[in-house]
Amino acid sequence: MRGEETADGTRPLNRLDPARVRATLGTPELTWLVERLGSRISQGKALTGTLRLTGPTPAQRRAVETLLGRRASSGAHGGSVAVPLEDLEAELVEAGVAPDLRAAVELLTGPLADLAGARADEAARREAMAQAMGRGRHAGRDWYEQWRAALAADGTLTRLIRRGEDHLCGQAAAVLGRLPAAGAPLPVLAESVTGDTKALSGTPLATIVLRALAHRAGWAAPPDGSAQRRRLWEGAGVVPDDLSSQVLVLGLTGREDHVVADWLRDAAGFGIPFRLTLHMLALDPLTPDASQVFVCENPAVLRVAATALEGRCAALVCTEGVPSAACHQLLAAASAAGATIRWRGDFDWTGVRTTNDAVRRYQAMPWRMDVGTYSCALGQGESEPLRGRPTGSEWDGGALGAALRDSGRAVMEERLANDLVEDLRRDRRPEVK
Questions:
Q1: How high is the mean pLDDT of the chain?
Q2: Three-class SS of residue 271?
Q3: Strands (E), 261-346
Q4: Distance between CA 402 and CA 392 in Å, rounded?
Q5: Fewer CB near the terminus (10 Å): N or C of the chain?
Q6: High-pLDDT (> 90) share of the chain, %
Q7: Rounded to an integer, what distance in angstroms lies between the CA atom of residue 353 and that of residue 217?
């Protein structure tokens, strides 16, 4: 390459001349050189040392000789050409073609990503996410750590980083830190953490939080559909919608004199199941008029009781799985008024978990949730395998939980329906287990 001089006899060392760069390095015979230089730049490597091309064509060898202004050096057997990068850069600068080798290469290739820098940045952001989640109030609990591990294992954390949404992990930890809540509306929870009332409604943040709540509930998979999402929110004390949050009751009446209490009295008198919404309970607060309130998990049990007992059923509340916010509000009112809450669920991990929670919340008395009842029911037919995350039965020193683990089988509540109905007869005083 021949250098150019300015009018005062000096060479323009900081000049980038696109036409001369293309003429010097942009020929097809030097494509290999430009590509390898671009790869070095992207990887954060210095443009120093020597690049070699093994088995060059005669045209490629001539191009290197023209570029360096001298005969190209060869490998030990003459089967390669070598380009000393410091010499090449000095030629480009001295000739006024480019201020440095990188500028010349990027003119030909376009701006090159700093892959090494990107990897370092991604690692730093991943560490920041880990620290944000590690500061969460529930850090160290099994379900919380399972959630964190799952986000890392399935690539969610990487996707969040590359979409520029890594801040969502810190927000998710903050949301979870407010849970369980005491009937907080979902928009209020969202606004209190993020400043956006809609941040937990069908958003990536909502998906991340719900995955954590699925682990908390012992589910084997994230929620599928609006009904499951609602169950998870309500199970954490959050009210997604005060109309969709409902509780099914039978034989339950209220002490108040208002329209909802009137409806309940009529339904109880005729033995008709009745659905209360959280909206009703907010408009017309209700105090159950019963010394005992029985709680079952499955609507089939309530349906059998309605048919068999008609208007003679004790106050019965059905959770229909994980209790809703409406269910908790009703039972909290009953407990505060002095009623004994008699609680049962399926003989599975969810049933054990909800019973533990009821004992803590309401000082509930487990209702036929003992090892003897389980063992007897287990021998009455085929039972499905236990699923979900195991947990201990806190009310009996872990005896029922141990029996479930030993058998590995679940028994649904419906198998006990006849015994449960007998306990619910108003005209008898059973000795409830």
A1: 89
A2: coil
A3: 274-277, 292-296, 316-318, 340-343
A4: 7
A5: C
A6: 64
A7: 8
State the DSSP H helix or E strand holding residue 217, giving kind and residue range, or none if neither.
none
Distance CA 189, CA 191 (A): 6
* Parts of the chain with a pLDDT under 70: 1-14, 72-78, 113-118, 427-433
Q: In sequence order, what DSSP letters do the residues of 361-399 get, joined into one string? A: HH-PEESS-SHHHHHHHHTTS--PBP-S-----GGGTTH
222 torsion bin: left (phi>0), alpha (psi -120 to 50), beta (else): beta
Predicted pLDDT at 1: 58
Q: Give the other-Cβ count within 10 Å of 315's Cβ.
A: 23
Single-letter code of the amino acid located at 129:
M
Output the pLDDT for position 432.
Answer: 52
Phi and psi angles of residue 99, each rounded to the nearest 5 degrees, phi first: -70, -25
Q: Can you spell out the DSSP letters for 26-74? A: -SGGGHHHHHHHHHHHHTT--S-SEEEEES--HHHHHHHHHHHTSPPPB
Q: Does residue 187 have a cis bond before it (omega within 30 degrees)?
A: no
Within 8 A by CB and 6+ apart from 55, the residues are 79, 80
| Torsion sign across C-alpha atoms 415, 419, 424, 430 | negative
Q: What angle do CA 55, 59, 65 make, to 5 degrees?
A: 90
For the chain, domains (ranges, CATH) are 18-113 (no CATH), 116-239 (no CATH), 246-424 (3.40.1360.10)
Please check whether residue 261 is in contact with residue 269, taking contact to mean a CB–CB distance below 8 angstroms.
no
